[in-house]
Amino acid sequence: MSPRRNRPRGGGSSARRTGGAPDRYGLERTDEWRGEEWVVRQVAGQSAGKHYRCPGCDQEIPPGTAHVVAWQREGRVEDRRHWHRACWNARDRRSARLQRSRQAPRY
């Protein structure tokens, strides 16, 4: 008996199937948010080698964690932000609250 195939048969890259553009770092797509176009790139866990701060939840994204990199289509390289996937998907439902530590004053 031959081993089971986990990959679909047939040629073609995953970029062609999902409609994204293949890139050195992963697949890119364009999302519309707040009337502007954003380029969104999925980053695999093994490709993430640094600590990042997610703007959606203000929590740290540790190295080795899969996440999303997003920036405005007309933006600069310095404007890229690293988001948790769930935070990027919930960005419209989140409010812009100030995150405080437990010992921070409330004023």
TrEMBL record:
UniProt superkingdom: Bacteria
Region (Disordered): 1-29
Protein name from the UniProt record: ATP/GTP-binding protein
